[in-house]
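pls ignore typos typing on phone
flavin mononucleotide + seq
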Amino acid sequence: MNTNRAIFIPVILGTPRQGRMSEYAAKFVVGQVAKHSGIETELIDVRDIPLSTTDAGEAIKDSQFSETVMRADALIIVTPEYNHGYPGMLKHLLDTNLKEYIHKAVGICGVSAGGFGGTRVIQNLLPVMRELGLVTIFWDVNFSSVHKLFDDSGTLLDQSYIQRTDKFLQELIWMAKVLRYGRENVSLE
Ligand SMILES: Cc1cc2nc3c(=O)[nH]c(=O)nc-3n(C[C@H](O)[C@H](O)[C@H](O)COP(=O)(O)O)c2cc1C
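k done
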């Protein structure tokens, strides 16, 4: 096992909506992850993954998404809050894998037009994460009133999000390292 390889933390952008503000949040998070030495990241856009809508689950697995999640040590999900829940496309995508997630860390960033920063979508995603075998952390990022947080070109307008996101990443990276050590060195028995 190559324990020297970089920790890999892809970021899933969970909505395909035209004009989605979550894209700015996801790209900002990718940029923040990329600043950490020894950590690799990439953006996974639900729009780009062709999935059948006449079936569900592992039967419609996309091989590239599956390989990316298999290589990942942790995932970051950037999701808007739609009627207090998660976008159907995000769930449809997440449902296509299972073993790929086991004993890996996950951090969630909520995005909302309102002032709660996707708190309710995050709460609703937590039981899904558990069922997938992912390990959640006790930090989130809440992109509240997102239309005021980014300008039209996606530039961050509120610099406090840099520190908030760093706190979240510090915890996620720690969990990713611990879980990788566990997967590679501790047997289940
Ligand atoms: C179908 C739908 C439902 C929504 N429900 C909520 C909601 O429950 N709470 C909220 O704060 N914003 C809600 N919004 C507004 C989004 O928070 C807003 O569009 C924000 O920019 C994040 O989503 P986006 O990435 O699609 O832009 C909803 C938007 C859509 C399209």
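The beta strands are 7-8, 11-13, 39-40, 43-45, 74-80, 104-111, 134-136, 141-143. The pocket of flavin mononucleotide is lined by residues 15, 17, 20-22, 80-84, 111-114, 146 (CB under 6 Å). more later
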